[in-house]
Structure formats: structure tokens, C-alpha cells
Amino acid sequence: MTDVSAIGAVGSVVAAPFVLGALGFTSAGIAAGSFAASMMSSAAIANGGGVAAGSLVALLQSAGAVGLSGAATAAVAGAGGAVASAVGASVTGLAYPNDPNMEEKEEDDDEDDEEK
Q1: Domain count within the chain
Q2: In which domain, by residue range, is 59 found?
Q3: Calpha distance 87→5 (Å, rounded)
Q4: From 11, 33, 60, 65, which residue has the greatest number of CB atoms within 10 Å?
Q5: Helix or strand or coil: residue 26?
Q6: 68: CB partners within 8 A, 6+ apart
């Protein structure tokens, strides 16, 4: 599962700017009529007219405007790796349902890879 986790970690960091832009968190600000605009409106109403510093909307807009910080990159990579690992484990479980030897098969596969 390590390979799947690594792919998920890298993929999530690479995809983050595109996803933020698609949601409406752009380098020019929050795009009108976007999901980000809806989030901003809700946050402002809940906060009495303004978006609180450090709120989710503020953090996402910052990331959309200038990119992810080192800490945010690490968090996104960790989350992406965890999700990919969980999905990989689920797919493996679906491929080998109720197989008590599944762990042995994975270990055998790993040993074969190491011998090559």
C-alpha cells in the first residue's frame, strides 16, 4: 500500500491549486457566483458581516491566492496519502473478499518484488 499512499500524497498536492481554482478560490480573489462565494457569504453572515481571519474561507482564499504553505502542503500530502491508502485497502478487500490468506498473498507479492 506504500506506493498507493505516495501516489495519493503527490497527486493531492499537485491537484490542490486546480481544485481551489475550480471552487472559486483564485489568485485574483473569490470568483463571483462560485462555491467559494457561497462559503464567503455564509461565513460573513455567521460572523456578523465579515469573514474572520483564520477561518476556513480565509485559509482557502490565501491558498488560492498565493499557493500552499509548507505546513499546508504537508497536511494536504498526508491527507491525500491516507485517503489513497484507505481506498487501496478497500479495493484490495473487494478483490479478495473473505480470503483468510489475503495477508499471505500480499507478503508473497512483496517478497517477489524484493527478489527482482
Answers
A1: 1
A2: 2-115
A3: 10
A4: 60
A5: strand
A6: 13, 16, 17, 76
Tabulate helix, strand, coil % of the chain (nearest 5).
Answer: 75, 5, 25
**Which of 98, 17, 96 lies closest to 61, judged by CA?**
17
Tell me the whole-structure pTM to 2 decimals.
Answer: 0.60
Measured from the Cβ of residue 84, the count of other Cβ atoms closer than 10 Å reads 21
Q: Is 48 left (phi over 0), alpha (psi -120 to 50) or beta?
A: left
Instruction: Report the candidate in 105, 73, 102, 95 with the shortest Cα–Cα distance to residue 87.
Output: 95
Residue 92: Cβ-neighbour burial (10 angstroms; 0-12, 13-18, 19+) = middle
CB 22 within 8 A of CB 36: no
Number of alpha carbons in the 13 Å side-chain half-sphere of residue 114:
6
Angle formed by the axes of helices 70-95 and 2-23, to 10°? Answer: 120
Convert the pLDDT of each residue in 21-74 to its tens digit.
888 898 888 999 999 999 999 999 998 988 888 888 988 898 888 877 777 777
